[in-house]
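Milestone M4 deliverable, item 7.
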Amino acid sequence: MLFFEVFDQLNVDNSLAELFADVEVVKVVASRQNNKVLTYIQSTRLIARKIIKKMEYQLQKQLFAGTQNEVQLCDNYVLSAQYTLENLWNLYEESFYEELQDVSILDYNVLRNSEISFTEDTMTLKMEDTFLNRKKGADIKQMLELTFSQRFNHHVKIVFEFLEREEEDQEKMCEYEYVKVANVRFDSDDEGGSPESHGGQPESAGEQVAASAGQAGGSESAAKKAETPAKTESSQPKKEE
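Output delivered:
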C-alpha cells in the first residue's frame, strides 16, 4: 500500500507530501519491548535523512501523540543501475553524516576528517594513524556496511589506510612529551633548595646553564673576600707548541 493510504489521516505540507506520494509501506511492526512502531517503507528515489526525520515527527505528533510509542521509519530504496557506489555516496553523503552524528559524535568526526575514495564496490577511508581512529574505525565500518546493505541492497567493502603523522606534528608531539615528563626535584639539604635531578645532575640544558651560573657567582664572591695574589709565571697562559 502507498504511504498515504496507510496513514490517510496524516496532513503535511505539499513538498513533504510530494516526496512520499509514491512511497510504499511494506509492513508496520509494533514492538512492546522498546515501545517502537517500526514502519518499513520502500522508494524508487532517494529521500534525505532530514526529510525522513521530519515525517517521523509529523507521524508522532498527529497520530501517536497520546501513546508511549516512538515512530521510526525504516527506509529502503530500489534504485537503477546508474547509482554506482560513488554516485550513491555523493548524493546521500550528508544523510550518512547526520545519521552517524546522532549515534556517536566521535565516529562522526573521524569519518568527517577522512579522505574517501572508491574503486568499484570498495570504499577506502584514509586517516591519520592514531589510537582513536583505529578504535572508531571498526564502528564506522560496521555502520556503513550495514546501511549500504539494508537500505540500498548494496554490498560494500570498507578498507582503511592509516597514514603516518606529518613530521611537523611529530616534532611538536616530541617537544610536548619532553616538557611533560621533565621532573625536577628540590633537595632539602641545600639551604636555598637547588634544583637537581635524581642523579644529582641538572636534567636539561637550561638547568645546566643555571647551575654553572650559580657556581660562577659563588666563586666570584669568594674571590672578592680573599686578597688577589700576584701573578706568577705559572699563571701565564702557555703558548701552543
